[in-house]
Write a structure and sequence with these properties.
It is a single chain. By secondary structure, this protein is α/β, with parallel strands linked by helices. It folds into two domains: 122 residues, Phosphotransferase system, mannose-type IIA component (Rossmann fold), CATH 3.40.50; 80 residues, HPr-like (Histidine-containing Protein, Chain: A, 2-Layer Sandwich), CATH 3.30.1340. 42% of the residues lie in helices and 17% in strands. A hairpin with a 2-residue loop joins strand 6 and strand 7. It is elongated, with a radius of gyration of 18 Å. The two termini are 29 Å apart. It comes from Agrococcus versicolor.
Length: 224
Amino acid sequence: MSVGLLIVSHSVRIAEGVVELAGQMAEGVTIVAAGGAEDGGIGTSFDLVTAGMQAADSGEGVVVLCDLGSAVLTAETALELLDEAAASRVRIADAPIVEGAVAAAVAASAGDDVDGVLAAARTAAGGPSPVDDARTVPDDGPTRTLTLVNDSGLHARPAADLVQLAATFDARVQVNGVDARSMLRVLGLGLDRGASVTIRATGPEAEEAVAAVADLVERGFDES
């Protein structure tokens, strides 16, 4: 089980579209749409949001992303009326709904707890990554430099695969100097096919982490 996500939008189509996009990056993560008013028109629904919070919570918690201010107010009202135990597992993210949902979904699929998933969503609003990029991994740690060989480079799906893999090791991993556990930081590199990638790590499993990520890159992220 993992942390779930709830997408609250004034539009049914926007909520469902964000769920579809984020779900492509994070199989197995429960992502629930609460879009539109009760009649399906533009607006938000307290009942849909409340039901969505319950549906998204497997016991690990829920991160809620909203599109506009009144959606946040609806989510806050629903949160206030949950029982104490359920409410303690819900976080409302101050983050762009699309980018934040993608980053949060990848973090949830990597096994982060609810506060880690919240932090990942906040990187979409300029918040710090789960590991501060400014603290560069020492040069004397294990390092590999490779060339991206897959057609799509280090974009959405490959980036998600890299982030999820890096999160499985007890190590602090960086790719070209950014936190390898931050989906948006990795995507922000904008690396295409043929670009150079330097993987560096520190920590108890640094060697294993660098070797595994390097293998993923060399395999072209298993793209056909």
